[in-house]
Design a protein that fits this description.
Helices cover about 75% and strands about 0% of the residues. The model has no long low-confidence stretch (mean pLDDT about 90). It has one domain. It is an all-alpha fold. It has 4 helices and no strands. The longest helix is centred in the last third of the chain and has 27 residues.
Length: about 130
């Protein structure tokens, strides 16, 4: 059951996640993307995957399966975001494999950064337990 506390933690986590990931995307995405697109991607990509990680996946795992949950969630999010980014922000007719790889790697690094910082804050008891 969703509680107001859980939803508050979800909102706090979302704001933290987009703050971290947007910084990484602005700094790391290839130059073929405008600053506007980088900022939009920072908010939009997380908006697409975050509800699945917080609302859909948790009921599929028991409390003692946190490791499996993290493996699934933290594989799903960057993979889905790479696919979404390429579909929405890819340039039609553009063949730039190095820039495409850079964009994908940047999205993966952004997710790893937000995950890592979130785990540190969680272990310190600063995010919900």
């Amino acid at each position: 059951m969703l509680t107001s506390r859980y939803l508050q933690e979800m909102l706090t986590g979302y704001l933290l996640t987009i703050s971290i990931e947007t910084l990484v995307l602005v700094a790391g995405l290839s130059v073929r993307h405008s600053l506007r697109d980088r900022l939009i991607a920072g908010v939009w990509l997380t908006l697409c995957t975050y509800p699945i990680v917080w609302l859909v996946l948790p009921p599929l795992f028991s409390a003692d399966q946190r490791g499996w949950f993290l493996l699934v969630a933290e594989t799903f999010a960057p993979l889905a975001e790479v696919i979404l980014f390429r579909r929405v922000f890819g340039k039609p007719g553009e063949d730039a494999p190095a820039a495409t790889r850079r964009d994908a790697l940047t999205i993966i690094v952004a997710n790893l950064c937000s995950f890592g910082i979130g785990e540190v804050l969680w272990s310190w008891g600063l995010l919900g337990r």
